[in-house]
């Protein structure tokens, strides 16, 4: 949610102005000067010639404009009028609450099923080790090297690998010209857009700039080990996905309140939640900047500096980053570590028992006995 794409709107407006001028049968005076044309004296029969040649020139100018602008053309949509502006936030609010509840409910079920299958996985691993000893070893086996690399990663790094892969796929989709309209509609979050809810989560995996994606994914990779060891992979995924939606909703509210509309995209809101949670839980941990490793500072001071910078950006109206989404993600991360873990995750047992009863009633495949009891007592 960090990246604000506003400069392209000016490009779109200029293109439309050029297009309208060409359709009228004339080139704009500035375009004539750039191309070296001189305004000839008007002749009575020149009007028909201009009308006949107008469409051809129009097509060539549009094609040239498209070649000059690799960035996507954002849909220029008028902001909603003030009386009904905040009424548009009802659906995003309901979506935020529902998606957050579903994320934590799915994470609780995921943990339950993981614990149930632990015994079976143990026997599968024993069988795999036995087969590995029996069958002859292959030299240069690519699968074996990949497995060794995967096993060398921490649980947190393995957890965020899927997130990084999803971001990379979406980044590649931005490079396909035929997908531009679809990507703008569903993978950028804008309260003035016709599509409000689905972009709240999809824009969390969306980056148009490679540097933007690389910086976000590096920070996520760096904090993944600490965050997953602190929360567990299931709870981490629930917090990360919920943070993406919550930070987008905070961005919606601030854009409606200030009238500064524009599309936003990026994982920075969710990553700010992860960073804030780790810094709140371990404020004395030492951090360093990758390019300046000789300068170290505590995690608590880093969090204070980031929150102060985003607050200043929000108050002063800086538009390069979506500071409201950053602040929403940071506040959610701090709140979750201090209060949310106790209020949400530690009170999941009634829901897990309902799922356990549902699985038990399904018959032998649903699992019962000792495995179900262990799952219900998580």
Strand order of the largest sheet: 1-2
Series of secondary-structure elements, N-terminal to C-terminal: EHHHHHHHHHHHHEHEEHHHH
CATH fourth-tier homologous superfamily of the domain at 85-123 and 155-358:
Rhomboid-like
The assigned structural class equals: mainly alpha
CATH topology of the domain at 85-123 and 155-358, what is it called? Rhomboid-like fold
Q: Indicate the radius of gyration in whole angstroms.
A: 27 Å
CATH class designation of the domain at 85-123 and 155-358: Mainly Alpha
Q: Give the rounded overall mean pLDDT.
A: 76
How would you describe this protein?
The protein is built from 17 helices and four strands. The protein is mainly alpha-helical and 378 residues long. It has a domain at 85-123 and 155-358: Up-down Bundle (Rhomboid-like fold), CATH 1.20.1540. It is globular. The model is unreliable at 5-40, 43-69 and 365-378 (pLDDT under 50). It is an enzyme of class 3 (hydrolase). The chain crosses the membrane at residues 93-112, 159-176, 196-215, 235-254, 287-307, 327-345. Residues 200-340 form the Peptidase S54 rhomboid domain. Residues 42-51 have a biased composition (Basic and acidic residues).
State the main characteristics.
mainly alpha; two-stranded antiparallel ribbon; single chain; Rhomboid-like fold; disordered C terminus
């Amino acid at each position: 949610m960090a990246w604000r794409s506003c400069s392209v709107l000016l490009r779109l407006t200029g293109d439309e102005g050029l297009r309208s001028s060409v359709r009228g049968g004339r080139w704009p005076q500035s375009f004539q000067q750039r191309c070296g044309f001189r305004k000839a004296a008007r002749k009575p029969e020149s009007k028909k010639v201009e009308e006949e040649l107008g469409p051809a020139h129009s097509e060539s100018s549009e094609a040239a404009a498209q070649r000059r602008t690799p960035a996507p053309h954002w849909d220029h949509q008028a902001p909603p009028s003030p009386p009904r502006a905040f009424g548009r936030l009802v659906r995003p609010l309901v979506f935020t609450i529902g998606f957050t509840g579903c994320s934590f409910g799915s994470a609780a079920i995921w943990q339950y099923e993981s614990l149930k299958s632990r015994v079976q996985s143990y026997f599968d691993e024993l069988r795999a080790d036995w087969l590995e000893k029996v069958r002859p070893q292959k030299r240069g086996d690519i699968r074996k090297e990949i497995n060794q690399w995967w096993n060398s990663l921490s649980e947190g790094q393995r957890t965020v690998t899927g997130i990084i892969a999803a971001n990379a796929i979406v980044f590649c989709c931005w490079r396909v010209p035929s997908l531009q309209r679809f990507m703008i509609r569903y993978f950028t979050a804008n309260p003035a857009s016709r599509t409000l809810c689905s972009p709240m989560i999809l824009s969390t995996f969306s980056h148009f700039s490679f540097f933007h994606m690389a910086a976000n994914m590096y920070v996520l990779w760096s904090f993944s080990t600490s965050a997953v060891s602190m929360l567990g992979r299931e709870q981490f995924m629930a917090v990360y996905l919920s943070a993406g939606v919550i930070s987008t909703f905070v961005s919606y509210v601030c854009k409606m309140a200030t009238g500064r509309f524009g599309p936003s995209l990026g994982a920075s809101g969710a990553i700010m939640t992860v960073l804030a949670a780790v810094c709140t839980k371990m404020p004395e941990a030492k951090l360093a900047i990758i390019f300046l490793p000789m300068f170290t500072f505590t995690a608590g001071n880093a969090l204070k500096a980031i929150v102060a910078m985003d607050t200043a950006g929000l108050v002063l109206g800086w538009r390069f980053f979506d500071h409201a989404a950053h602040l929403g993600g940071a506040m959610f991360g701090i709140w979750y570590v201090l209060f949310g873990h106790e209020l949400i995750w530690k009170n999941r047992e009634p829901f897990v028992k309902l799922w356990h009863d549902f699985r038990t009633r399904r018959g032998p495949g649903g699992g019962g006995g000792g495995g179900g009891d262990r799952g219900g007592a998580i």
